[in-house]
Amino acid sequence: MKKDLVLITGATSGIGLELTKIFAKKRCNLILVARDRKKLDHLRRKLRSFYDIEVDFIVKDLTDDDSAEYIYQKVKNSGKTVDVLVNNAGFGDYGKFLDASLEKQNKMIKCNILALTELTYYFAKDMKNKGRGRILNTASIGSFMPGPLMSVYYATKAYVLSFTEALAEEFKGTGIKVSALCPGPTDTGFWKVANGEAVTTINKLKNKSPKDVAKYGYRKMKQGRVIILPGFFTRMAPLFIRLAPRKVVRKIVYKVQKMK
C-alpha cells in the first residue's frame, strides 16, 4: 500500500513538531520545512531511526518572497506529489501597532498569509488532478476576534480561518478536504518570538500541550472537520464572541492583553 506523502511547514517545534511525530507514527513519508538546517537534519535522522518511512527536508524561510514557489518546485523536481499539506508555520508580535517594526509586520503577513495561500494554491492543484488530498491550516482562537496589541497577528489568523472555510466549500466534490486548526493557549515557543513571554493573562491560563493539540487536530482532520477547536475553553470562546457586541469583545481582548 502506497504511503501518503505529508509536507509540514514549521515542523521543528511546537504543534508542527507534534504533528510531524503523529504522521511519522502513522507511517507517512514526510517532507519537513523550516529555517534551521541542523534541527531539520537531527529530526530527520531521529524519525528515520524509529520508523520505516522516507523523510526529506527543505530549508526555507517562509518570509522570503519566493518561498512557496521554491518549495513547490523542489518537490516537483523530486518527482513526488504531496497527499497532505500542513500549513503550520507562523509567528506573532506583541505591542502597539505604531510602536512595532513595520518590517516584522510585513514578514508576518508574508509567512502567515502569503506563503500559506501560495502553498495551498500550488499543492491543491495537484491534489485536484489526483482527486484526493488533505490540507490542514493552523489558525488560532484569535481568528474569531480582533486583537488589540497583536493586531496584525490576529488579522492574519482571521484570514486563515476565512480562507479555509471558503475552500472547504469550493472543494466539495474534488476529493480535497480542508481544515483549520484553531488552538487556544498552548505551551509553545510562540511568546518568545512575539516578544511577550509574560505579557498576557493567557499565559496564566491552563495551557494545552502542543502534543494534545496536535493529537486532537489530527483526529478531527481525519474526520473531515472544517473548524477544529481543541479544548472546552477554545470551543466556548467563539460562541461568546458571536453573542457579545463587537465593541465589548475588543475591549475585553485589549484588557486581557494588557494584564501582566
Could you explain the architecture of this structure?
Keywords: Oxidoreductase. Belongs to the short-chain dehydrogenases/reductases (SDR) family. The protein is α/β, with parallel strands linked by helices and 260 residues long. The chain has a single domain, classed as Rossmann fold. The protein is 49% helix and 13% strand. The chain contains nine helices and seven strands, in the order E-H-E-H-E-H-E-H-E-H-E-H-H-E-H-H. It has helices at residues 14-25, 37-50, 67-77, 102-130, 151-170, 190-193, 210-222, 232-243, 246-258, and strands spanning 5-9, 29-34, 55-59, 84-87, 133-138, 176-181, 227-228. The protein has a seven-stranded parallel β-sheet, sandwiched between helices. Strand 4 (84-87), helix 4 (102-130) and strand 5 (133-138) form a beta-alpha-beta unit. Helix 1 (14-25) crosses helix 7, helix 3 runs parallel beside helix 4 (102-130) and helix 4 (102-130) runs parallel beside helix 5. It is globular. It starts with a strand and ends with a helix. Residues 197-205 have low confidence and may be disordered.
Per-chain topology:
Blueprint: E1 5-9, H1 14-25, E2 29-34, H2 37-50, E3 55-59, H3 67-77, E4 84-87, H4 102-130, E5 133-138, H5 151-170, E6 176-181, H6 190-193, H7 210-222, E7 227-228, H8 232-243, H9 246-258
Parallel strand pairs: 1-2, 1-4, 2-3, 4-5, 5-6, 6-7
